[in-house]
Amino acid sequence: MVYIQSKTFRKTFYKNKKFMQESTAETDKDMKAALSPLTEQNFRTDFNFKRELPENLKDLETISENFYWSWSAEGADLFRDLSPTLWEKVEQNPRELLMKMRVLRLWQKSTDEDYVARVKRFAEKQARYLSEPPKAFGNITAEHPVAYFCAEYGVHNSLPNYSGGLGILAGDHLKSASDLNMPLVAVGLLYRYGYFRQKIAHDGWQEERYQDLFLSEIALKPVVDETGERVVIKVHIRGREVGAQAWLASVGRIRLYLLDTNIPQNDEIDRLITGHLYGGDSETRIVQEKVLGIGGVRLLRRLGIEPAVYHLNEGHSAFLTLELAREFLEANGDKSFEDAVRAVRERCVFTTHTPVAAGNDVFAPELLEACFDGKFIEALKISREEFFALGRTDPQDEKEWFGMTPLALRMARSSNGVSEKHGEVSRKLWHKMFPGIERPEDVPITHITNGVHAPTWIAPVMKTLYEKRIGENWPELLRDPKAWAEAVEKIPDAEIWNVHRTLKNLLIAFIRQRTLAKETGLHDTINEHEDTNKLFDADVLTIGFARRVATYKRWNLLMTDLERLLRLVDDRERPVQFVFAGKAHPQDRHGKLVLQELMSINHDSNWQNRAVFIEDYDQEVARYLVHGVDVWMNVPRRPLEASGTSGQKAAMNGGLNFSVLDGWWIEGYNGRNGFSIGDLSEKSEEEMDREDAAALYEVLENELIPAFYKKDENGLPVEWIGRMKNALATLTPQFSSDRMVIDYFEKIYVRE
To answer: How far apart (Å, rounded) are the C-alpha atoms in residues 726 and 656?
Structure first.
């Protein structure tokens, strides 16, 4: 976590900014260095737990093997209570915690009868949860489940196999499928170095660092066959057979299989196929996607799993459709490729998350040809040109590169965007692929609006309030929006406000702690520092802005009128404070400059104490932010926000959204459960940016700030609390991932 920052820094920034503009080659060199894989190899055959625990605490090992604990307050508390300091130091990884605990502390806890009883109760709860057989939904059964494919999964910090929203969404999808007891298995890749860890240098420039996942203890089990041998599947890449071993992560009742090419029998370059998430060039991406799609299908076959439906969550796994077609033709020698396509389409569904054509993976013909040899194409009973045409929006355009989204759209019986607006945008974007359809609105792309997993993202203290006022079955009540709204309305205003104040104070403590840790290097200190103690005030309106640093996210919209911004921060009667977090892609120099510009804002006022940037945005940081801010701000350029989910998490904790009308907020905003910026009209970028910046400040000054600071005789902001309760009542059930997963099963997965 870093300050947003000093006069000396400003001089450095402007000097460095000029340097960056003049030294592109050097920058690219630095970026490539940051992305270069580590060459030292270590191979993992297992992540087996090697710590002997006291007999009456051995259930902790069993609990740690399944990520179910991560969305249960009781489960997380069991590990936190062993050592709160070490728990944070190991980034809430229970396996690492148990490995690093002092023996004396473990034996001390084994004599704590209350703690031992809690361990036993949760172990029994987990066992009951896991023992329930999955439900059947039409043709989808335990024997024939949904196979969910995604390039990344954000299940928990302790499995850093994600970069951002797509991965978090996939993790939430699995958790809700588990809670609903849906028949589903998931397939992905295990990235040895994951996504980068962010470090902000003293001059405000983002630096990337990579962490070797294989040096940690993670809740992964090797997948073995009936003889006990490791399951290794093969995929033909670069003229040779590349092996990928399989790992199993247990996400409640859901099995998540992850493929890993870091095995001794592979060449060194092939071991690095699963090295970095989104860190390589096009050649790396295409072979990763071949391993994911084709390798994933072969893994399921090897495990004897015959899915009823394959769900391609984004286009990264679209090659799986070609493998299914090859399998069909191998088993039906008298059939044609057209027959295979019809058979494959019956079993595949596709979700697109990208609202612009440029955001979809495309590959040069020569790269595709190098990746798929003539033997594979021949097995499909089509020509080389016909093969290339599968990935073009216009099959006749030989100059067009091969796109994964066009391939997925052609090979899936159902396609959907991730919000109502995104469905509309997608129909227009891909209209040209359907020449027989005159009107874009008739293009067969529907929508399922994204949601978030409430038990994961609602703060423990908020859950306690729900248990007290609504009942222990509150998660199930979310599936009845009317009953939920009535229950929330009955919660006393003061109790809602007191819980929010508690969460806000936790956020402030987190900000101060991260600041002190960065300054001193003491990540386990509990002492407050004089300077950090001045950071943030629980009585001040707190606005959070955290997301990927990309152009369309418009990070600099708030900075269009710095004088006006600083006036808001410095206001003696009604001040505002901001907390920022987010990462720029390692190769996005513009995004890094935007971050650096943010860091350079003049602090000759209260800015240094009322604006912070928390580095290395991840699930842990996100939780503190969405739990504790008063307002969650989102200002994407319309209509480029496919859905967005961070604001949904804030809303579930009583935070009010302050957002452009795009993505999910178009469906969620009712005029009383948050604040909107601008309107729904689409203009030129320049005009839209100018008008939205003006609207942002207008709403801040005339609506949002006055509402927050208006108090009754008891010191309660009654109008504000009314908006909070309206948000909790209306948005929590509507944007729950339980609703989302039910929609997928009822509207997409199950065939009539």
So the answer is: 10
How far is it, in rounded angstroms, from Cα 347 to Cα 325? 11
Question: CA 547, CA 543: separation in Å to the nearest integer?
Answer: 13
Domain definitions of the chain by residue range: 2-9+454-735, 55-131, 146-450+744-749
Residue 305: both structure tokens together: 């799993």
Instruction: Write the single-letter amino acid at 71.
Output: W
Give the 3-state DSSP-derived string for 615-667, with helices as H, strands as E and coil as C.
CCCCHHHHHHHHHHCCEEEECCCCCCCCCCCHHHHHHHCCCEEEEECCCHHHH
The SS3 of residue 312 is: strand
Looking at residue 179, its amino acid is D
Q: Give pLDDT tens digits for 589-642.
A: 999 999 998 888 866 668 888 999 999 999 999 999 999 999 999 999 999 999
Paired tokens of 566 = 């600083």
What's the CATH fold of domain 2-9+454-735?
Answer: Rossmann fold (3.40.50)
DSSP designation for 305? -
Question: Are 661 and 678 spatial neighbours (Cβ–Cβ below 8 Å)?
Answer: yes
Encode pLDDT of 489-505 as tens digits.
Answer: 999 999 999 999 999 99
Contacts of the segment 237-243: beta carbons below 8 A, 24+ positions apart: 237/270, 237/273, 237/287, 237/290, 237/291, 237/371, 238/270, 238/287, 238/370, 238/371, 239/373, 240/267, 240/270, 242/266, 242/270, 242/273, 242/287, 242/291
CATH 3.40.50.2000 fits 146-450+744-749, yes or no: yes
Q: For tokens 């983002």, what's the residue?
A: 206
Burial code (b: 16+ CB inside 10 Å, e: under 16) for 589-604 equals bebbbbbbbbbbbebe
